[in-house]
Design brief:
alpha/beta; 9-stranded mixed beta sheet; 32% helix; binds dihydropyrimidine-2,4(1H,3H)-dione; binds zinc ion
């Protein structure tokens, strides 16, 4: 099976040029002007952008959390991702405290293996670091192709580890060639503020936001950076939202330290004014919460300064019925927001179309850097001879309106209902197969493959 994509404007993190791409089997076999090849299928990309399939390294599919499960399965979530131009996702396996990493991986494999539509990998969330866990880190890296280890500095009693566990984990992960990633907020301070607001009868979604002030994130980001500096372990801070936290990383650069930073699309374009005085704000109850306009400015600047390397989603959808679990108590609203399908189009529309980032930067933060940081490059994340043929053909001018009525995520509301975007995903290839064409999905459940990842160096 061969495919020729003709005459598109090819965008990578480094280049922009008009050429043809020839695909044989699952990989790109030639790139050039006016290629003279015989292809089974030809796609005319004249006037379109052609960029690598998006990589979303932060999604939660079918995840047990806060007494329920996130509502997208590995099937529905990866299919929705494909509709939105994201061909590979990295999902989180959660160790149960008191149990092993292997048990957790078996549980996630039982839900994801053979059910995904798009390609996927796993981060391992270490929620209980002890001598048994230590011995399993090497197995994860060497045998399972899982090279990133997620930690939580919040959610005490379920997910949080303390600083002594963090240091021990970092030392072991460094030794095995992996990376430690972190949800960096100060869980003790948040728990104190949650309890205080509840005791005062302050129970609406607004108080979710007011229980996680900027300082909880800047303090934890700074502490995490200090611990990675001390241990020498490669570090990555997920879903950064604010100026204070980014300045903690900026400070770390002054001692010549490198800490990777991810933000998510919602923190770039939505702000805390959405937490009004009624329950509607539950749509945006996520952790950390939305912040201020000044934080959006800092994050866009951080992308252009190279301090923020990745734009992900933290996709963690819940049906409105599930959100209602917290209708009388904000602390019972399942935390999370759906965006796996919207990230690439929103980042194009709000970032490239509005002149905040260049096209090359767009590809870098949405495709190339996630692949490099997490050990999938150059198989994923670029358009090059020998790379997987994961490709998006994109119309930069077509406008459309986002809505729960038309999205493919398994969730009955949209955080972006009625928002007009400029730019539309037209055709998506995954490993040499046309997966999406004109709003139709042409690959089945089970087409997605688990991507084993390489050891990482903390350098890109
Ligand atoms: N934050 C969320 O909003 N959802 C899932 C986990 C997290 O840290
Ligand atoms: Zn067990
Ligand atoms: Zn988190
Ligand atoms: Zn998350």
């Amino acid at each position: 099976m061969s495919i020729l994509i003709k005459n598109g404007r090819i965008i990578t993190a480094a280049d922009e040029y008009v050429a043809d791409i020839f695909i044989e089997g699952e990989t790109i076999s030639a790139i050039g002007k006016n290629l003279s090849v015989q292809a089974d299928t030809t796609i005319d990309a004249t006037g379109k952008l052609v960029f690598p399939g998006g990589i979303d390294p932060h999604v939660h599919l079918d995840m047990p959390f806060m007494g329920t499960f996130s509502s997208d399965t590995h099937e529905t979530g990866t299919r929705a991702a494909l509709y939105g131009g994201t061909t590979t996702v990295i999902d989180f396996v959660l160790q149960k405290q008191g149990h092993s990493l292997k048990e957790a991986l078996a549980e996630w494999n039982s839900r994801a293996n053979g059910t995904t539509v798009g390609d996927y990998s796993f981060h391992m969330a270490v929620t209980d670091f002890n001598e048994n866990t230590r011995a399993e880190i090497k197995e994860m890296v060497e045998n399972e192709g899982i090279t990133s280890f997620k930690t939580f500095m919040a959610y005490k009693g379920a997910l949080m580890i303390d600083d002594s566990q963090m240091i021990g984990l970092m030392q072991e992960v460094k030794k095995q060639g992996g990376m430690v990633t972190v949800h960096a907020t100060n869980g003790d301070v948040i728990d104190y503020l949650v309890a205080k607001h509840k005791s005062e009868g302050k129970l609406t979604p607004l108080y979710h936001y007011l229980s996680q002030p900027e300082v909880t994130e800047s303090e934890a980001s700074s502490r995490f950076a200090d611990m990675t500096d001390y241990t020498g372990c490669p570090g990555y801070i997920v879903h950064m939202t604010c100026e204070g936290a980014l300045n903690a990383v900026r400070n770390a650069t002054r001692r010549n330290q490198k800490v990777f930073v991810e933000t998510c699309i919602q923190y770039l374009i939505l702000d805390a004014s959405l937490y009004g005085d009624d329950f509607d704000g539950a749509k945006w109850v996520m952790s950390p919460p939305l912040r201020e306009k000044k934080d959006q400015q800092t994050l866009w600047a951080g992308i252009n300064q190279g301090l923020v390397q990745v734009v992900a989603t933290d996709h963690c959808p819940f049906m409105w019925e599930q959100k209602l679990m917290g209708k009388d108590d904000f602390s019972k609203i399942p935390n999370g927001h759906p965006a796996i399908e919207n990230r690439m189009e929103l980042l194009y529309s709000e970032g490239v179309h509005k002149g905040k980032i260049t096209l090359n930067k767009y590809v870098e933060v949405a495709c190339t850097n996630p692949a490099k940081i997490f050990g999938m490059f150059p198989r994923k994340g670029t358009i090059a001879v020998g790379s997987d043929a994961d490709i998006v053909v994109f119309d930069p001018n077509e406008t459309h309106t986002l809505s729960a009525k038309t999205h493919h995520m398994n969730v009955d509301y949209s955080g972006y209902e009625g928002r007009e975007v400029t730019g539309k995903v037209k055709t998506v290839l995954l490993r040499g197969k046309v997966a999406i064409d004109d709003d139709k999905c042409l690959v089945d459940r089970g087409y997605g493959q688990f991507i084993r990842r390489s050891k990482v160096s903390g350098k890109i």
